[in-house]
Design brief:
The protein is 53% helix and 12% strand. It has 23 helices and 19 strands.
């Protein structure tokens, strides 16, 4: 109605129900809008859910189907508000889950779906087995989710892939790569000494990995245990220790999975791409919820940073901008205090903030998690009230987030922020004889040049949450050298710009308990969440404030139907005042600002009801008149038709009657002459007989008389 793009921001803690709420919203749009073509775009939009859940969701201690990435889906509509396409942006996939899961957690669902379907004839070449056989799927010790059939979910995933145009051959190629990752996780290293290691000859997991990936065994075995160092004058090959080899193996597995994830997202976007011009869109944001575990690392830091930004956007929209507008419009108002999380965001992203110090440490030749932790303590400890140091640790820090305090372990922050992998391993994979694998790495051509190697001999290959514009020659390397934290910060800024350019609607998901129990409600836990996300202050400002507002021209255009001609003045403001005083008797229910009219909750709905009733009455009158005219026209047409039919029927009946009369008269005439003929003939016979008798009698009498004489 207002010709504005909309956004639905679904937020809440991990396991509160954000993903399901987002799916319900998308299902609603797909159901009520319909498709603008015969391509069933709305079905494809819904089909993207099972695919993205299988490759991006996993079981955690807080949620059996936790989204381990963020996504913002723009559903495009044409001018008739029918779905014409969609586009998905993804944010920070949790790659570390591919190689490590905490106790009672699982890897991504797709791995367990593959293992559960290993007996299928088409998947036997992948040489899979039980999930407990693979290092990458057994670490959590919980390979099964209660009430979930992974084999059945695999069928749903494959059906969704088919609906989105991913052919059977590409599906099998995806499964080959995923199976290869599982076998890669089982590759073991034997130490030669403290600085070198080796892989046993004809090592079965590596043999299967190389067969599935279509690469040479010797090359891959060599580069898993060695790295190339380039100097200004020469290049030489250096063996690496067992620990570094295991880390390099895990980095390669994470990198393959991340690139495959991006490839699938791109393919889904191509399938959902609108073929006609988009008129408007509704965006649905389903992003990871606030998290705190026993051990919190870089992923939880980024996830909670994203939630801080979303909470700030909520505060800006609901509190700051709301109250500032009351002041600007000179509406009588008492300011309501609310928790402003801008200091926490400054601590994370401002100059010399946590992310800045992390990026700076990543550039240092001998940078480490420990030195970075010391820089954090020196910069922020006792200077920022939201930053604390744990009593018993020099390798961790605490941030007071809007939802809760979280202690982060510094170990692994630098490595995850760099997100690097050995370039020689990538080159081996790019030489694969299978089509899909080189496709995953084709965007890294320029990054893998010898001149782009970092001092560590590794190449940063961070994924980009939002695709950048095409770079000019020489820019690709610079783009890839951006750290994960830097890219994530940029992608969040772009997301905030998109959300601020639309009309936001908020869905707050409240988690009833922390134990995943059904029908169990923890009142204290629920109130804590309501306080943390500002819902209680929102209720206060909604009760005391004016949530609805119209400019005078908008109000006049919308409610002109409620005005009589004599009420319309040249001064729009005075016209609106006169009309409102008649329609809403309680003057506390609205306020007149300098450029807008402000309404308390429920008043616009009341005006809409009056307007709807007026339009309904007008519609009934129009319908009555139109229906009367139509019925009169129908009656005249039917009367004319009836008269015509009557005329023809009566003419036919008259002709039939005349014919009957003529036939009757003819019959009487025939009867008359027939009867006359019969009677005359009888008469003539009787006369002749009588005359004959008379002649005989008279002759007899005459003879007798003669004889007597």
């Amino acid at each position: 109605r207002d010709e504005r793009n909309q956004s639905i921001i679904v937020s809440g803690e991990s396991g509160a129900g954000k993903t399901v709420s987002a799916k319900y919203a998308m299902r609603y749009f797909a159901t009520v809008s319909g498709s603008a073509s015969e391509a069933n775009v709305e079905e494809k939009v819904l089909a993207s859910n099972p695919i993205m859940e299988s490759i991006g969701n996993a079981k955690t201690t807080r949620n059996d189907n936790s989204s381990r990435f963020g996504k913002y889906i723009e559903i495009g509509f044409d001018k008739r508000y029918r779905i014409i396409g969609a586009n998905m942006r993804t944010y920070l996939l949790e790659k570390s889950r591919v190689v490590f899961q905490a106790e009672e957690e699982r890897n991504y669902h797709i791995f367990y779906q593959l293992c559960a379907s290993a007996a299928l004839p088409e998947l036997k070449t992948l040489r899979l087995g039980n999930a407990n056989y693979f290092h990458y799927t057994k670490q959590g010790g919980s390979p099964v989710i209660d009430g979930v059939d992974d084999a059945k979910e695999m069928v749903n995933t494959r059906q969704a892939c088919t609906l989105l145009g991913i052919s059977d051959s590409y599906q099998m190629a995806i499964f080959r790569i995923l199976a290869g990752i599982l076998h890669l996780g089982n590759v073991e290293f034997a130490s030669r000494d403290s600085d070198s290691c080796t892989i046993p000859p004809k090592h079965e997991p590596l043999t299967i990995f190389c067969d599935l990936m279509g690469v040479e065994y010797e090359e891959m075995a060599h580069w898993l245990c060695h790295r190339k160092l380039a100097t200004t004058t020469e290049t030489y090959i250096k063996p690496i220790s067992k620990l570094h080899a295991v880390n390099a193996r895990d980095a390669l597995a994470k990198h393959i999975y991340a690139n495959l994830f991006n490839w699938i997202v791109d393919h889904v976007n191509k399938a959902l791409h609108a073929t006609v011009k988009q008129h408007s869109f509704i965006g649905v944001l389903d992003i990871y919820g606030f998290e705190t575990f026993e051990i919190n690392s870089f992923e939880q830091f980024c996830i909670n940073y994203a939630n801080e930004k979303l909470q700030q956007q909520f505060n800006m929209h609901v509190f700051k901008l709301e109250q500032e507008e009351y002041m600007k419009e000179q509406i009588p108002w008492t300011l309501i205090d609310f928790y402003d999380n801008q200091p926490c965001i400054n601590l994370i992203e401002a100059k010399m903030g946590i992310l800045d110090l992390l990026d700076e440490e990543c550039k240092m030749p001998k940078g480490s998690d420990d030195t970075w932790a010391q820089k954090l303590y020196n910069t922020h400890l006792n200077k920022c009230a939201l930053f604390e140091k744990p009593r018993l640790s020099n390798k961790a820090f605490i941030i007071k987030h809007f939802a809760d305090k979280v202690e982060y372990q510094c170990e692994g922050f630098l490595e995850k922020n760099k997100d690097t992998v050995y370039e020689e391993q990538i080159k081996v994979l790019k030489s694969s004889k299978f089509k899909l694998l080189p496709e995953l790495f084709q965007d890294e051509e320029k990054v893998l040049s010898p001149t782009s190697a970092t001092p560590s001999g590794r190449v940063p290959l961070s994924r980009t949450a939002v695709k950048p514009a095409k770079a000019r020659p020489g820019q690709a390397s610079k783009e890839h050298k951006k750290t994960v934290g830097h890219q994530f910060r940029n992608s969040l800024h772009l997301l905030m710009e998109t959300l601020n350019a639309t009309t936001p609607h908020y869905v707050r998901c409240i988690k009833p308990n922390d134990f995943k129990f059904p029908f169990t409600f923890d009142e204290k836990r629920a109130v804590q969440q309501l306080r943390a996300c500002g819902v209680l202050e929102t209720i206060r400002i909604s009760a005391a404030g004016f949530p609805s507002r119209w400019t005078y021209q908008e109000f006049f255009s919308r409610y002109r139907v409620l005005m009589k001609q004599r009420d319309v003045l040249s001064d729009r403001k005075q016209t609106c005042k006169n009309v409102l005083e008649k329609l809403i008797l309680d003057k506390d229910k609205y306020q007149f600002g300098k450029t807008k009219i402000f309404f308390r909750a429920g008043q616009v709905a009341y005006l809409e009801k009056i307007r709807a009733d007026k339009l309904r009455a007008a519609c009934i009158r129009i319908q009555k008149t139109i229906r009367g005219w139509l019925m009169r026209k129908k009656y005249v047409r039917m009367r004319k038709a009836a008269i015509t039919i009557q005329r023809y029927v009566r003419g036919y009946q008259a002709r039939c009657y005349a014919k009957f009369l003529r036939r009757t008269r003819a019959a009487i005439t025939i009867q008359k002459f027939q009867r006359m003929y019969v009677v005359r003939k009888r008469y003539q016979c009787m006369r002749a007989a009588t005359i004959a008798l008379q002649a005989l009698l008279r002759g007899y009498m005459a003879r007798n008389k003669y004889q007597m004489v």
